[in-house]
Design brief:
The complex is a heterodimer of chains A (213) and B (971). Helices cover 42% and strands 13% of the residues of chain A. By secondary structure, chain A is of the alpha/beta class. In chain A, strands 2-1-3-4-5-6 form a six-stranded mixed beta sheet, sandwiched between helices. In chain A, a hairpin with a 4-residue loop joins strand 3 and strand 4. Chain A starts with 16 loop residues before the first strand and ends in a 7-residue tail after the last helix. With 971 residues, chain B is α/β, with parallel strands linked by helices. Chain B is built from 41 helices and 21 strands. In chain B, strand 9 and strand 10 form a beta hairpin. In chain B, helix 7 runs parallel beside helix 29. Chain B starts with a helix and ends in a 7-residue tail after the last helix. Classes of the chains: A alpha/beta (213), B alpha/beta (971). The interface between A and B is large, with 94 and 117 residues.
């Protein structure tokens, strides 16, 4: 059900965030800097694209008026595809409220996103707007590192082995293939490679990928 | 054996043991403790070295011999399992008890589901991996009521949320009669924090603790009788440069600690001083302090915490390693801490900027080689000559061996049961090797003229390490040449980025001979001088000019005769060794015939295993090359246990060194910990009837409490009471590593372990939850795992949710991960890949608008949230949950269908992680590689043509290139 990013058309497809006049005076607005915004009469607090909207909730306010947010969610009438409940955690005892919001999100179909400062909340709004048409390649796994980082990542995958060990290993064997094929005795001759590390490495290298049933 | 018989045997524990069991507990305190343990359930804390395992095995044997028991050992590691197994077999053979069954080991590899069921039914003594045990107990495969008793090892590791506590809770809920005994030989963690002992006892479901420090009256009496071991203490002075290096490292440590304090003013850093920095637990202490704010601490702080580990390692190795190896280690450390691309001064380890760091590097070098002013007109050019400082302990060791030799010769040994063996104990296998090399070659001379050995010259016959050190230096110089190349390849780009186009290091290192002249003239830093500084002020790694290296190499080059002599010398040693009787080669032990009768055994300290070493070797002389408090006690116990074995111990330590301080403070800390425990025990309240997590003893009551009276007065669950089951959650077996299942169980939910392909927790037929800790979240975004997991969840469930779980002790905020710079680039869609965590979360919710995110500040909170969500819908179906995500024919397969079938995870995580780092491997083709190849080794050795069909040509080329890239040859 991964939806492709929705293409233009309809309300809120412009390049700016639509802000409901209700939000006047919210410090989050002062932090909205990288993306333009404008007031607009919308049922949500922020219009972040044709299919995305956000309601803003401060936990401090929520504790005083617990019913408020339900009215607001109801007023959305299920219009947007992605309804974000942007929640500002500004009270120390957040547990009860968050538990309740978790349940609400499941019942009412809203996505709870927590922010811990106005700046972070603004950042979320900007990001939602900016990524309105972005692809998802960034979170589907990426491979853009240099040989050295990859190498260190590869060697340090077993626990106990650190970066210095990785450098010592390849520098004494020259290539990774030779290091993989080395016997425990050869490896323990590498400086810094104690018994534990040698064992961890050899186990990792020879451990079958699939667990035998 | 039936459950009834097991219960009968359990009842039988109240009677004195009647069976003719032969125990091997010769000392008074051991016998007292044993009797105490037979009579009561308790936690035993024994000082390290007093023979905890011996006690455990004897206790187990007494139950084993009785037969008809089902006893579970929890928390034993591999070595302890092996020990228990051997000891039980041995005991059974000695006391000839026909009913003894020995130890049965259950871990992932050994038994399948069906086989395990049969094993449990047969009874006996089991050592079971905690993760398997908890699943087996939850699925009822191992009925807790049929268990006669449990033995918990490493009780100090049992915390409220640990698996072991979970196991004990299940056990105690169902079985009140069985015995439960816990052991620990590590009092330190039990004495840290607020009323730690009471908390541990509560987690262990025990009421009584029995403390046995070294100063316990029975222990003292047993060990300080007539049969005391003879101890000779030898304080060895350090050399000047060792002292200088040690002081310099200490200075670095101190500055690093100060930096930490400066960077984190809000923390309680009372205990952070140089003294505690020497302790093993310092890292843990610092991390525990920083943990609650780990997300918030600066990059620099993290770096310093890492540095402290490195520096502490250095303190150890300056004493343990020989001069050449130490220098080599420093080179590696330095290369690894080279600045990252584009880094400025701030991102470097602060200690590298100190003068002390310079001292470390230059002194370390000076111990190996130094510059010598060459006489003549060429005086401006420095030449290098080898120095090769020896470790002072070597000479002392040689003296001691000599003394023992004379001793043996002059006064023939009194008749006793000891072998004439000399046992040398040191801290690790590395030191073992070093000592072996030294002892082998200490009489071999590097010079040609020494070849005439017929004339006895005492001066020349002095043992020396010259031969060994020269050999080491030769291999070091060879290594360094290659290392320069490798580190150039790995880090040159970084360096260039830092220092711009002109990099003096690169020039100096460049191998083209035609440039050498210019290089020589231009080299600002002479040999022997301190290391140069990079433009940003950090120490540059020093690589010698090729010419110098050649000279140095020539200096230590194998002289014409030496080569031969090296061969001959070794040969001679080998011959003198006699037949290299080496039955324990595999155990890294090293045996050598010193005189024809005496054996010199070099062995590393290995905790409890040392007892075996003592018993097997039966040494007359013990040389403790490095101090170890526990081993001293072991010798005491050994000596007191045997009337007829005399032992003389030589105890070597560097005076005024970190080694000495560390030893003394370890002894002191243990004593303090015991004192604190004794005090706490004295004032401890004893009402411990309540369950650890308030879960009622009565499951019925617990169930009633979970009813939500606000929904139809609680009738909603009661109404379809035809199926009135307590609420249940299906949990992936892999999730048992986290505390959440335990907490769910503690809240009265029924936890159904299952092998899940999709999701981690299934709360209802429609709600499925994927749990991610913050660290997991970041890494699973990086490799795309989370995206795939969400896709899979949406295929099988209507309401998938992502649970972002923070650590109990860490701050509940993601803000530190946000890029709040406000720059336009930070929000451009084009750079989505480089985005902060917030950006990725945004992408995830955009990709899956129906994905719900649950935020939880701790596992406890997660349990609460789950409980609340459960009140919404019906109960999940374990069979359906297990089947979700499997291919058609796989779903038909047997193991996954069985709900309790705690089949092991399909893939091993570590090789998986390694594979993910290989370029060309994607989450998609990973599976096909894993199917086709057996392990990493096989992948590494595959050719492009072999890989091609699996992953495609392009990827195959990348994978091959990654493994084959040779840093020594190309570039």
């Amino acid at each position: 059900q991964a939806l492709p990013p929705a293409g233009g058309g309809g309300r809120g497809s412009g390049s700016s965030i639509l802000v409901s006049p209700r939000q006047k005076g919210n410090p989050v607005l002062a932090c909205l800097k990288s993306v333009p915004w404008e007031y607009s009469d919308i049922p949500a607090d922020y219009g972040l694209g044709s299919t995305t909207c956000a309601l803003f909730l401060s936990l401090k306010y929520h504790r005083l008026h617990p019913e408020y947010i339900y009215t607001r969610i109801r007023n959305l009438q299920g219009r947007y595809n992605l309804r974000v409940l942007l929640t500002l955690v500004d009270v120390p005892n957040h547990e009860d409220s968050l538990r309740e919001l978790s349940k609400t999100s499941l019942i009412n179909g809203v996505t709870v996103v927590l922010a811990w400062s106005a700046a972070e909340a603004a950042r979320y709004l900007e990001l939602y707007k900016a990524y309105e048409h972005a692809g998802f390649a960034a979170i589907r796994g990426q491979q853009a590192e240099g040989y050295a980082e990859r190498l260190v990542g590869f060697v340090t995958a077993p626990r106990n082995i650190n970066k210095a060990d990785a450098v010592a290993l390849v520098s004494s064997f020259g290539s990774l293939r030779r290091a993989v094929n080395a016997t425990p005795d050869q490896i323990s001759a590498v400086s810094g490679w104690g018994e534990k590390k040698v064992r961890a490495w050899c186990k990792a290298v020879e451990e079958p990928f699939r667990v035998r049933k | 054996m039936s459950a009834a018989a097991g219960a009968a045997a359990a009842a039988g524990t109240s009677q004195p043991p009647v069976q003719p069991v032969k125990l091997s507990l010769p000392l008074v305190y051991q016998q007292k403790l044993f009797e105490e343990l037979r009579a009561e359930d308790e936690l035993v804390v024994l000082a390290r070295g007093l023979g905890l395992m011996r006690l455990v095995t004897n206790l187990l044997h007494s139950y084993d011999a009785a037969g008809g028991n089902l006893i579970v050992v929890v928390g034993a590691d591999d070595r302890e399992n092996a020990w228990i197994g051997e000891a039980l077999a041995e005991h059974a053979a000695i006391s000839m008890t026909p009913r003894a069954r020995g130890l049965t080991l259950v871990n992932t590899e050994s038994a399948s589901v069906g086989a395990r069921e049969k094993l449990y039914a047969a009874g006996g003594i089991f050592s079971i991996t905690s993760r398997i045990l908890v699943v087996d107990m939850l699925t009822g495969m191992l009925n807790p009521e049929s268990v006669t008793g449990m033995i918990v090892l490493h009780a100090d590791r049992v915390t409220a949320t640990s698996l072991e506590a979970f196991i004990l809770r299940i056990y105690r809920q169902k079985n009140k009669a069985g015995f439960l005994k816990a052991f620990s030989d590590n009092p330190d963690p039990l004495a840290a924090g607020f009323s730690p002992l009471a908390a541990t006892l509560r987690n262990l479901f025990l009421r009584k603790v029995s403390l046995w420090p070294r100063f316990h009256v029975h222990v003292a009496q047993s060990l300080e009788g007539k049969k005391k071991a003879e101890v000779v203490e030898l304080e060895v002075p350090m050399t000047e440069s060792m002292r200088a290096i040690q002081n310099a490292v200490m200075e670095c440590v101190e500055v690093s600690i100060q930096e930490l304090k400066k960077g984190n003013p809000g923390l309680d850093m009372e205990g952070w001083n140089l003294d505690s920095a020497l302790l093993k637990s310092f890292d843990v202490m610092v991390r525990r302090q920083l943990e609650p704010n780990w997300h918030r601490v600066s990059w620099k702080t993290k770096q310093i915490v890492g540095d402290l580990t490195v520096l502490r390692g250095m303190l150890r190795s300056v004493l343990a390693l020989d001069a050449v190896s130490f220098l080599q280690q420093l080179d590696t450390i330095h290369a690894a801490h080279a600045p990252a691309p584009g880094s400025a001064r701030q991102t470097q380890s602060p200690w590298l900027f100190l003068d002390a760091a310079e001292t470390i590097f230059s002194e370390a070098k000076r111990r190996v080689y130094a510059s010598a002013q060459r006489p003549g007109p060429d005086a401006s050019i420095d030449a290098l000559r080898p120095v090769l400082e020896e470790q002072p302990k070597w000479a002392v060791l040689a003296d001691v061996l000599d003394e023992i030799d004379r001793d043996l010769l002059l006064e023939p040994p009194a008749r006793d049961d000891s072998n004439g063996t000399i046992l040398i104990m040191c801290s690790d296998a590395d030191t073992c090797r070093q000592l072996r090399d030294y002892l082998q070659t200490m009489h071999v001379k590097p010079r040609v003229e020494n070849k005439v050995e017929e004339f006895y010259d005492p001066e020349r016959d002095r043992p020396s390490a010259a031969f060994m050190m020269r050999r080491k230096l030769r291999s070091y110089l060879r290594w360094k040449r290659e290392f320069a190349q490798v580190s150039a390849q790995l880090f040159a780009e970084n360096q260039r980025a830092v220092s711009g186009a002109v990099d003096p290091r690169l020039g100096r290192r460049g191998p083209p001979p035609s440039k050498r002249r210019r290089v020589r003239g231009g080299g600002a830093v002479g040999a022997g001088a301190g290391p140069g500084r990079l433009e940003n002020g950090s120490i540059a790694q020093y690589f010698e000019k090729p010419g110098e290296v050649a000279e140095l190499m020539a200096e230590v080059q194998i002289t014409a005769g030496e080569d031969k002599e090296e061969e001959e010398g070794l040969e001679a040693v080998r011959q003198r060794d006699g037949a290299a009787a080496d039955p324990l080669e595999d155990m890294d032990d090293y045996y050598r015939l010193y005189d024809m009768q005496d054996l010199v055994v070099i062995h590393p300290y290995e905790g409890d295993q040392d007892e075996h070493v003592l018993e097997e070797v039966r040494p007359r002389y013990i040389i403790m090359y490095e101090p170890d408090a526990a081993f001293i006690r072991r010798v005491e116990v050994y000596r007191s246990s045997h009337n007829d074995r005399n032992v003389r111990v030589y105890f070597l330590y560097y005076g005024g060194s970190v080694e000495e301080q560390r030893y003394l403070s370890a002894v002191r800390r243990e004593k303090d910990a015991f004192t604190k425990l004794i005090k706490e025990r004295a004032s401890m309240a004893l009402t411990l009837a309540a369950d650890a997590h308030g879960a009622a003893d009565d499951p019925q009551e617990a169930f009633l409490r979970t009813l939500n009276t606000r929904i139809a007065g609680g009738g909603r669950l009661a109404a379809p009471a035809a199926t009135a089951q307590p609420p249940r959650v299906v949990v992936d077996v892999r999730e048992f590593r986290s505390p959440l299942p335990s907490l769910l169980h503690g809240r009265g939910l029924v936890v159904v372990p299952c092998m899940l392909t999709v999701g981690d927790y299934v709360l209802s037929p429609t709600v499925c939850v994927e749990r991610k800790s913050v660290g997991d979240l970041i890494s699973s975004f990086k490799d795309g795992r989370l995206y795939a997991q969400c896709e899979a969840m949406f295929q099988h469930y209507r309401h998938p949710a992502l649970l972002i779980e923070f650590d109990q002790n860490k701050s509940f905020t993601l803000e530190p991960f946000a890029d709040l710079s406000g720059s336009a680039g930070s929000v451009s869609a084009a750079h989505a890949g480089a985005a902060d965590l917030q950006g990725k979360l945004v992408l995830l919710t955009l990709a899956f608008p129906k994905l719900r995110i649950l935020w939880s500040s701790s596992p406890y909170e997660s349990a609460e949230i789950f409980e609340r969500l459960k009140s919404l819908e019906g109960e999940p179906d374990p069979v359906a949950a297990a089947r979700a995500g499997l291919d058609g024919d796989e779903a038909e397969g047997a193991p996954s269908q069985r709900p309790g079938g705690a089949a092991p995870p399909a893939f091993n995580p570590v090789p998986q992680d390694m594979l993910a780092n290989v370029p060309g491997v994607t989450p998609n083709n990973m599976a096909s590689i894993a199917l086709e190849a057996e392990n990493i080794k096989e992948v590494a050795n595959m050719t492009e043509d072999e890989l091609g069909p699996l992953v495609g040509r392009e990827a195959a080329r990348k994978i091959c290139g990654f493994f084959a890239k040779d840093l020594l040859e190309d570039g």
